[in-house]
Amino acid sequence: xxxxxxxxxxxxxxxxxxxxxxxxxxxxxxxxxxxxxxxxxxxxxxxxxxxxxxxxxxxxxxxxxxxxxxxxxxxxxxxxxxxxxxxxxxxxxxxxxxxxxxxxxxxxxxxxxxxxxxxxxxxxxxxxxxxxxxxxxxxxxxxxxxxxxx
Length: 150
Description:
- With 150 residues, the chain is of the alpha/beta class.
- The protein has one domain: 3-Layer(bba) Sandwich (D-tyrosyl-trna(Tyr) Deacylase, Chain: A), CATH 3.50.80.
- It is built from 2 helices and 8 strands, in the order βββαβββαββ.
- Strands 1, 2, 3, 6, 7 and 8 form a 6-stranded mixed beta sheet that branches. A two-stranded antiparallel ribbon has the order 4-5.
- Strand 1 (2-15) and strand 2 form a beta hairpin.
- Helix 1 runs parallel beside helix 2.
- It comes from Breznakibacter xylanolyticus.
- It is found in: Cytoplasm.
- InterPro entries: Daa-tRNA_deacyls_DTD, DTD-like_sf.
- Its EC number is 3.1.1.96, 3.1.1.-.
């Protein structure tokens, strides 16, 4: 499971010209799921994201977590994070989990994030054609892969 975290001042997801979800200060999280991913990946990744100290403290040092700043979270499923680009110029997405595997893990990720944050989070719609808008704060963008825990 891969996640791309972007510290944002605001972010939103628009579907068919209508804003589906939006947040203010917090994290935009793009989540990619592989066939081998499971509940253990979710259990490791969600607390890592919520507790990662990437928000500035009073001295301007990245020393505060999403929990510390009472930030919001917007989670969007992103199968293209699993792209293979070694051969040719057309990415292959064979490493992305099919919906029967990915949807339950995505939903588990969302529920786990809500539990860790102690509040509702915003989401995209799995498989929808979404337009994502955000203002990256910093910019701060971090990639986490559960296959690289050690």
